[in-house]
Amino acid sequence: MTQDPLDGLAAAREEFDQVVREIQAIAEFRDVHAAPAFDTVAAAAGSGPLVYLTATESSGTALVVRGGDVVPVVLGLTAGDLRTQVHQYFHAYQALRHEPAEPNHERWQVALDGVTQWLWDAAMGPVLDAVGGAAQTTLVACGQFGLLPLHAAWTPDASLPTGRRYVVDATAVSYAAKAQAHQECERRAATIMGRRLLAVVDPNPDGPDALPDTEWEAAAAAARFPEADILRHADADLEAVERLVGNAQILQFGCHGVAMLGTDPAGPCRE
């Protein structure tokens, strides 16, 4: 491999900027890049803590906003530590995407376990202590924090069936680009009457990364709504999803995702 998996970030940034321009064309999001007044941030934290995560070359900080209160939390990392973790994470992912053989599967699992355990010790463990058992926590992941699965951070816990305690065992996690976007999305969500579910059940059940429990997940989700469409396995192709997605207010996808950095179809992380 000759291309660094982060080389595509410049192209990804251009894609991001284009998406931002499209978002700003929507009236409610016209000021998405404007610095918010604190009243806006405090209002966005009304339904649960809003946590800003950032890192400098000397330290890391989380700002936990709850209503009108802001609690700073010192994190045990620097921007350099964060870059190192991101590079290791994406190098292992790139290797898996290029050659999904067993050695690379093992390397990816080791990298994933390593970075998520590090995230608990360096960042998310202190954040959980600060949010104090909140049912819902929204993360504003600044810089390269946004490239890592913060919700999957874990620490050993022999009292649990998995032997691990994950962030999502303690609080429901959502992500937001900024306070205004979070507030507007919550406002829109409150206006949606969720009657119809579209569920996708493992489109590749015979592959090495099959997800057999997604059948139970879809059934449990469908039981909560008056109407439901469930696409299973080979029936869950792009055409079928596009045909049904416009009729659903709630989406449940039981499948794997792919990280794609950059716009070059021949690049290392493209399908």
Using the alpha-carbon principal axes, give the shape. globular
What is the mean predicted local confidence, pLDDT?
Answer: 87
Structural class: alpha/beta
Helix content: 25-40%
Strand runs, count: 10
Report the major sheet.
Answer: 5 strands, mixed
H-E order? HHEEEHHEEEHEHEHEHE
- State the domain count: 2
Q: What strand line-up does the widest sheet have?
A: 3-2-1-4-7
CA gyration radius, whole angstroms:
20 Å
Low-confidence stretches: 263-271
Protein name: CHAT domain-containing protein
InterPro entries: CHAT_dom
Characteristic terms for this protein:
271 residues; alpha/beta; 2 domains; five-stranded mixed beta sheet; three-stranded parallel beta sheet; 8 helices; disordered C terminus; CHAT domain-containing protein
Helices and strands, with pairings:
Layout: H1 9-24, H2 38-44, E1 50-55, E2 60-66, E3 69-75, H3 79-98, H4 102-131, E4 136-141, E5 154-156, E6 164-166, H5 167-170, E7 172-175, H6 179-190, E8 196-201, H7 214-222, E9 227-232, H8 238-245, E10 250-254
Parallel strand pairs: 1-4, 4-7, 8-9, 8-10
Antiparallel strand pairs: 1-2, 2-3, 5-6
Helix pairs in contact: 2-6, 3-4
